Amino acid sequence: MDHGHDMQMPMSPDSMYNNNSSSMMKDMVMHMSFFWGKDVTVLFPGWPGHRLGIYILALIFVFFLAFAVEVLSYSPSPAKAGASPVVASLVFAVIYAFRMALAYMVMLAVMSFNLGVFIVAVAGHAAGYFLVKLRKNGSSDQDPKP
Q1: What family is it from (predicted)?
Q2: Distance between CA atoms of residues 52 and 136, nearest Å
Q3: pTM of the entire structure?
Q4: pLDDT tens digits, 33-84
Q5: Inside any domain, residue 10
Q6: In a domain, 27, yes or no
Q7: b/e code 31-69 from CB counts within 10 Å (16+ = b)
Q8: Which domain, by its residues, includes 105?
C-alpha cells in the first residue's frame, strides 16, 4: 500500500466551471500569510481580477459589509406595543440570519489574507460600532419625555 506517493491534488472549484483549468491553476496562488497587492480573489472567482479600480471597489464592498454587520447588531426595543411576540421574534430572527450571512461573507473575504481587505474589514466594523454607539448615546433617556 502506497501512503503519500503519487497523490494527486483534488480538482479546484475553478476547474469545475472552466474548461481551461490548467491555465487557471498556473495563475492561481493561494496565500497562507498576509500580503499586500491588488492581485487577489475576494469572495467570487475572478473578482476583483488584476484591475486596481475593481480592487478598490472590492475594498469598499467589504467595508460596507462589515459596517452593515455592526449596524444590524443594534437591536432597538424588542417590539412595539400591541405587536405579536411571535411576529417580533420572527423579524429579529430574520435580521439575525441576514447579519450572520454578512458576517460570514466578511470572514471569507478576510481569509483571502490580503492586508487591504483585512484593514477595510476592521475599519468597517469600527465605523459601524461607532455609529451604533453614537446613536445609542444620542438617544439616551436623559432627554425629558413629553
Answers
A1: Belongs to the copper transporter (Ctr) (TC 1.A.56) family. SLC31A subfamily.
A2: 38
A3: 0.70
A4: 888 888 888 888 888 888 899 999 999 999 999 999 999 998 776 666 567 8
A5: no
A6: no
A7: eeeeeeebebbbbeeeebeeeeeebeebbebbbbbbbbb
A8: 37-138
